[in-house]
Specification:
With about 290 residues, this protein is mainly α. The protein contains 13 helices and no strands.
């Protein structure tokens, strides 16, 4: 069950990243984050009311709030790094986020067997290679590397935090996800306001831009937000059924999904190193699922 849920997480995160990447070609990345998370929060609010989720309020929600604050910061650092350096360097480095929840699991006493350990190593190597690291070219600026590592630690911290953010009930899960989304919107909205004050438009410009462009993109924005919520939810439940070390690695295969989606929809060709990475990730998945 852990493997199935964690792989579902990868599928949802990968599709959300692909959809978000397409949307950022038309509007600010912060706008995509804020609007998509607001739509997701609205849907979760309905679920919390319908399930009586407010009765699950407790101290564990501080983990959800922390994840909601850290998440947008990590995303901002990631997009800033992408704007400064080659994606072939930034993307694989950011995928090292998986190290954080795996290390947290080991620190809390999890001890994977030798087959699982091999599967973890193979899958992590596959995830990094699936990002298509650039092994040649000009040196990358230190600031780009620093921003990428900040984003990796942030994304990994979110995975480590949300594991402890809910009670083992559907109502508790919905409430934790809602708290996380509200904090996402608050932090992202503040950053969007600062950005607009600095002269960067929050809405798309040019012909057909403005509010009309955002309205037309609402279905896609809703998909991105809801896919992200679904991924967080399945990952939380996955950690209930099995070790975090396994769930975190399998849930981190989303770069492979994003690359395959780009191949299928945009007809982007996979580089040899990406194809090799996808194959390694698949081998690691098989080892983890069979352990």
């Amino acid at each position: 069950m852990t493997a199935v849920l964690a792989l579902t997480t990868s599928l949802m995160w990968g599709l959300a990243d692909f959809g978000g990447g397409l949307l950022t070609r038309r509007m600010s990345a912060l706008t995509v984050v804020v609007v998509s998370q607001t739509l997701a929060a609205a849907a979760l609010g309905v679920l919390v009311v319908a399930t009586g989720g407010w009765s699950e309020w407790g101290g564990h929600l501080w983990f959800a709030a922390a994840a909601g604050v850290v998440g947008p910061v990590a995303m901002l650092a990631f997009y800033k790094a992408l704007s400064k350096g080659p994606m072939g360097v930034v993307s694989p480095l950011a995928s090292l986020a998986v190290v954080v929840p795996v290390a947290a699991g080991l620190a809390l006493g999890e001890r994977p067997g030798w087959l699982q350990a091999v599967g973890i190593a193979v899958a992590v190597a596959g995830v990094v290679l699936a990002g298509g690291p650039e092994l040649r070219g000009a040196p990358v600026q230190r600031q780009t590397i620093a921003l990428t590592l900040v984003s990796a630690v942030g994304f990994g911290a979110v995975m480590a935090l949300i594991e402890h953010a809910f009670t083992a009930t559907a109502a508790g899960l919905f409430l934790a996800l809602l708290v996380q989304r509200v904090c996402n919107v608050a932090v992202g909205g503040a950053a969007l306001y600062v950005q607009s004050r600095r002269g960067v438009p929050a809405l798309p410009t040019g012909e057909g831009g403005g509010v009309r462009a955002v309205t037309a993109a609402l279905p896609a924005l809703a998909f991105v937000g809801l896919a992200d919520v679904a991924a967080n939810g399945t990952y939380m439940v996955a950690t209930l059924y099995g070790p975090v070390t396994t769930a975190a690695v399998l849930a981190s295969l989303y770069p492979v999904v994003t690359a395959l989606a780009a191949r299928g929809v945009l007809h982007e060709r996979l580089r040899g190193i990406q194809a090799a990475g996808a194959g390694l990730a698949l081998c690691g998945t098989v080892l983890l699922a069979s352990a």
